Amino acid sequence: MKIRASIAAILVFAAGLWWFGRDLHQLATADGAGESPAYRLGERLAPVPTAAPAQAAYRQVSWDDLLPPGWDPAAAFKGLDLSALRDSDQRAVDALAQVQALWNNAPINEKLNKTRVRIPGFLVPIERRGMLIDEFLLVPYFGACIHTPPPPANQIIHVRPAQPVQGLAMDAVWVSGELETRRVDTAVGLAGYRIKADMVEPYKRPQ
User: Fold this and answer.
1) Cα distance between the two ends of the chain
2) What are the structural domains of the chain?
3) CB of 200 within 8 A of CB of 173?
C-alpha cells in the first residue's frame, strides 16, 4: 500500500534521503527458506566484491559514480526552511514543483557512456506480463518511485533485459550491461541512463 504523505512531509523525506540518510543500515534478513529480505524505506544496498568470471567482464559501479563531479543533489533544498512548510502553504507546493523540475533535469556523468557496468538496485516494473517483467527502472533505494517521489534523473536507470525477468516491485537485483547516457521518460519516473541488460540477477546480502 502506498504511503500517503503531505507535500511538506514528502519534501522533508526527500531531503533527508540525500542530506542525512544516504547510509541507512540494513535490516536483518527474515528467517525461513524462500522469504524475501526486509528493507526499510530509503534503504540502499551494500556493495559487495565482484567474484565470478562472468561478473568480472563488467565494471562494478555505485550510484555515486552516476553523479557528475561537483553536482550536489541536495542543492535543490538549499534556502528552503522545511520546518516552516505546512500542507496549506502554497510555498510547499511551489517548492515540491521546483525540486521535481531540478531533479528531472539533473545532469548525468557522460564519462560512463558506453561503459559495461554492473550495479545493484531496486526494481520498479514498467511493462510486465503476469510475473514476467519486460521493462523496468532500477533505483538506488527501497521505495523510490513507488512510496516516495522519484529520485534525480541521474539516479534512475531504464532497463530492458535481454530476456524477461521474473520478479516483484522493489526486488533487489544486480543489473549488468552497457550503460548509455540517454534520457528515457516513463510514467513512473524520468531516467537519465539506459541499460540493455545482459544479466539481471537477484541481489544477496553480504554475509
Assistant:
1) 31
2) 7-202 (2.40.50.870)
3) yes
Weakest mean pLDDT among 31-35, 132-136, 146-150, 151-155: 31-35
Tell me: the pLDDT tens digits for 5-34? 454 555 555 555 544 344 433 333 333 333
Give CA–CA dist 134/130, Å, rounded.
Answer: 10
For residue 168, how many C-alpha atoms fall within 13 Å in the half-sphere facing its CB? 5
**Using CA atoms, how far apart are residues 106 and 34, in angstroms rounded to an integer?**
38
SS3 content of the chain, % helix, strand, coil (to 5): 25, 30, 45
**What digits encode the pLDDT tens for the residues 175-188?**
999 999 999 999 99
The sign of the torsion formed by the CA atoms of 165, 166, 171, 172 equals negative
